[in-house]
């Protein structure tokens, strides 16, 4: 597969061609979207929840919202390399509409608040997760908008504007142009669903090494052990000013630490012994997510989740896309092109991400990721 890495200051490359559907993109249902971390958990919960036949199947099936990425992008995608691995774009957005209004006002359309590429290695026993900072300046490709116009894209565009401009399809297209890797699936989550799922799980256990106080994310935690409620968990994965230097890079480290604690909780929750909890978890999980059209029914989602349920927190290597602060604007970051290429080449070949790729990156520096750990 030819690389199509696109970073700030580079011209958009000629797109590769592959098989794909045509037609217009289905507009996503108008509901609030947000944090990424529930999506990974949701797929596992569908399996653990023992989704059955009959009215329960149809109830859960009706919860899932699907977006036809294949129809939206057509042939303008990297080749689909069949080597037994899978690549999934897991996305959250910063919409503050509806039930999410309490977290602040929207400044225009929703943007992708958090984005992670989950690469599941052949055999589906281990995975690598690459977080893309929302403030990364890239060359964004042209995308169809919801009102059927074409946004031309351009250089030095923040990564999270892709979702704002063209929704899930533009987010997928942007990631594929950056990486040269075709995304097999798309998963997205909302604030309210995230909180509800955490509460149904009975909270998530973490330990904080220092106090975290952030009025913007409504989070107040003293140093020590905590069983986070849904509201507290949401505050933790949203906080920027409570830990570290206040940047999005520090927040990503907190999110990665929380995901590991969340995965541990899901594996330990013991839903098979409690039918009501099983159903409640499956109901919450399927209500919280938007998927690509290949996963927008319970049978497909459960089959997909079954292939991932053996991957625990210790089986995941998490990194931030190698970046440096933009010397012209320290509130933005720029891709480290050579290091990024090492990351994409490794994933494309189904290999581990080499340590050399992240050594010079600003993304995995600082102590924010050391503040939170699972019990």
Q: Helical element count?
A: 11
Taken in chain order, the helices and strands follow as HHEHEEEEEEEHEHEEEEHHHEHEEEHHE
Q: Unreliable runs, pLDDT <50, ≥5 residues?
A: 1-37, 47-53, 96-109
Q: How many angstroms does the end-to-end distance come to? A: 42 Å
Structural class: alpha+beta
> What is the name of the CATH class?
Alpha Beta
Helix content: 25-40%
Averaged pLDDT: 79
Number of strands: 18
Number of spatially distinct domains = 1
Sequence-ordered SSE layout with sheet pairings:
Elements: H1 37-48, H2 54-63, E1 65-67, H3 69-73, E2 86-93, E3 112-120, E4 127-132, E5 137-140, E6 143-144, E7 150-151, E8 154-158, H4 161-179, E9 185-189, H5 191-201, E10 204-208, E11 212-214, E12 219-221, E13 224-228, H6 230-238, H7 248-268, H8 275-288, E14 289-292, H9 298-306, E15 316-320, E16 323-326, E17 329-335, H10 337-348, H11 368-371, E18 372-374
Parallel strand pairs: 1-14, 2-9, 4-15
Antiparallel strand pairs: 2-3, 3-4, 5-8, 6-7, 9-14, 10-13, 10-18, 11-12, 16-17
